[in-house]
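Session log. Operator J.P. requested a structure for one protein chain; no other inputs attached. Running the standard single-chain path with token output.
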Amino acid sequence: MTAATALLETALMLAAHGIPPMPLRAGKVPFGNCPACTGNACGGRPNMKNPGPCRCPGVCHAWAAATTDPDVLNSSAWGTAWRRAAAVAYHPGGAGVTVVDLDDAAAVAWARATLPTTRTVPTTRGEHWIYQGAMRSVNAVRPGVDIKSTMAYARWLGPGTGSTAALPDAVRALAVKEPTTARMAPQTPTVPLRGGQGDCRHRTPAYLDRGISMAVQRISEARSAIHATVYRTFLAVLSTHGRCGCLTDAHIARLFTAAQAKGESPRHCTDAWTNALTTLGL
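Structure written below.
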């Protein structure tokens, strides 16, 4: 049995149990938009007002591509994706469940002391706690904790152990709080202007905005190697604008938003930004 066949069989098994699966590329990221849907040109990118499944025949629009239709999963349009895939993910909200993603030992310890016991799936660094019931997805509700349900995807790592408990108010309450900003965006560079005096040419709105817009476009148009593209783009922005202190939280948020739209997590964004700062000695 080939790896692609094994992944497809897993997806069909999930679909048969009412769990909408989708393929993931290496790095736990979804497949990018097809040419017809790039930049939302199709006009059908799912959102809060239009959360339905993607109507593109290919593996498109990240979580919205997840489906329980075996004909779609077996289609020739999806065949290339399964051959290139590295893992299977699923849409928790589409299956009527919520995944509390605990990213490290500290987060797991917090959950064991705070949340009701439920079905647990071990991950590389922590655990997925799965509850029956859907809610909105929120990243970084506290250090090392993400909530994945509607309009999100989680990697399929097996059925786990234990009984699935009802979604508790304690988890719903986490989504009401403001997400932890430390994982959503890095600190704005605070290095001084060159020479410590004079006006910075990057403070010219047109110059800086054009540079950020070009960076956002580069990330948004990436078809592959998303991790590498995000890092190189962050590095390019910081090499030009990082030493004069002209970048603001709003500029950085635009870059992070573009990266997350391509499937990058807040943690991946922060790591890429930190690595770029380190490389440049900032």
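Operator note: Residues 47-51, 177-199 have pLDDT under 50 and may be disordered.
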